């Protein structure tokens, strides 16, 4: 067989390929020749073939068929074969493939080899791709080489030990004795790898961190020698002695000094020397200064040293290198919360970075600028940020607008300034603002009573200039509808009033309705504004015509509004002035009290909690049916949602007698019906006294089921034992009382009874709840319910509600009526809030 081509010839041939297909053909042809050589067990050219295979692997072609050949080269006695074999193993093998375990013994033998370069190859391979199994088997050999006097082997053994610790952290203590003398080595390579090893151990073990803190003075001494030493050609980089070692030592000092006063105090002086003596004209010096700044900010350093670090970052902002400016902005953004005043000194430089052409620098500068805003500089900073908002790319407008809104809301010096700023944002970047900006601005305008005339005039002018910014148009429409009379009367005192007629205002709003730029939401705002002006303007007939036109609009939302507004003009014209009067002042949502905000169909009204009546809980029909489906029942009887007053039982009976003529149970309708609930005013007519004098004093009883003379009533008692104090939630004892007011025959289970018991009820109560509750059914007092209200059966149901969820229950009854078995199913979802809150 002819000798294969050399690696150089293969590279030269591949480079002559003009197309990808031609290169692929060359590679496939050479791979076929290499496979043939491997099959013939040709030891002469195995090294050359594996080298070519590695080159193909670097080009992205598959070379996995050379893995076993790498192992054969590793087992060879020639150094050249071992070198290619170990290189191939590092490139083609990893711990996910079991083949790599076959080389464990070869690596162990080479770690004990008499030649340091063979030992170095084995250490490099183990430190590159050694699995956890290999690391456990070979950690002892690595630890021996770490103690050797050979600097070449010690630095490689230290890096290999780092990989072993990452794979098997429990072997960390094995290397602890060998680390004692590492920092006393004069060789910079050994020092560098030793610092890397110590850093890895400190990051992975708090015990190691405490152990190595005593090395801080020694590290400080090494760093000082590097700074003060003269020129050393072997380690000099751009006039700085071994910057790589300096950076590694600074990182280790940062870890050792974090949250430790003594260690931080020991390194304050050397950090100040590094910060003041390092040359900043070259990138090497900037790298050291950056690590110094990070170390100063992370340890418990002195205030003066922190100011010095921030000043270094300020100088970075003036650097021509964009990477350095970006790094400085990112670092300042991390420290602005802890050293706000020191960062404020560089505010002008940071603002100048907003004009940078690089988008990454712009974004970091914008974020840092918003972080610097406070009550003292709000006007100046907002001026710069609004200018940036005018000229920035669209990708920045949304974040910038949101930042301006938040800053203005937090630090606004006056309401007029606040309104002007928000309007400026809406005018500049209205299409990019958040969805909640419109209601927030409306709330701000509503609460600024003295600014109503000024605001509506400003918004009217903005509407005349531009109707493309939809949030601005929506706010303007709302304000014109609310305060259109102030606009026409010219009552503005803050600036010169404009002369506007009612017809001009209506022309603008009608123009919005027909504009192609208006969204459906904007048209809804405009139609509502026109409707509100019917109580503020005298042009009522014109407004009627406009509203009636949109009663046949293809937009369902707009059509519904128009139809409802037409009904106001016709049937409820006497109520129109009251319904369309100005909105009251809206306060922020509060946890309790009369200022709580309730959002209803887009309108915001303050709600006053009713302390006399507990709220009636009504579940939607679909939710009720979903719950009832768990029992597989189809014939569902909606429960009468009646909250009984705390009166004797006869009072409840009187109430049921009053409603006895009403059909309170649903028929066999195909569609699910909403549970029937009695309006509160019906209950109010029973007595002039409140339903519950003290809601928190007791939980009122309730009727859970009432049909065909059978009534189930629930009474409640909150359980309070010593063992429940550690539970998160509440435990309720729910007592069910079953009464029979008619003489019917029921049977809950198969059993015999005599004729004189024909009025008794043998009932079975099935009570499923949601999975968030825990339920305990105690034994009932009896299985027989006497007829004609001659007695009752009680049963205690204990409910544990750890998450304080609303109680929901189903009741399932089985009985026979005139010889026919009947199942009745009902859902109970009107539990008093006191029972679950």
From TrEMBL:
Annotated compartments: Cytoplasmic vesicle membrane; Endomembrane system; Golgi apparatus
Major localization class: membrane
Keyword Membrane applies: yes
Protein origin, superkingdom: Eukaryota
GO BP of this protein: intracellular protein transport; vesicle-mediated transport
Keywords linked to the UniProt accession: Cytoplasmic vesicle, Golgi apparatus, Membrane, Protein transport, Transport
Sections of the chain in a coiled coil: none
GAE domain mapped to chain residues: 697-832
InterPro entries: Adaptor_Complx_Large_Subunit, AP1_complex_gsu, ARM-like, ARM-type_fold, Clathrin/coatomer_adapt-like_N, Clathrin_a/b/g-adaptin_app_Ig, Clathrin_app_Ig-like_sf, GAE_dom
Keyword Protein transport set for record: yes
GO CC term (a single one): AP-1 adaptor complex
Membrane topology field: Peripheral membrane protein
Family per record: Belongs to the adaptor complexes large subunit family.
Annotated protein name in UniProt: AP-1 complex subunit gamma
Gene source species: Oncorhynchus mykiss (Rainbow trout)
Lineage of the species this protein comes from: Eukaryota, Metazoa, Chordata, Craniata, Vertebrata
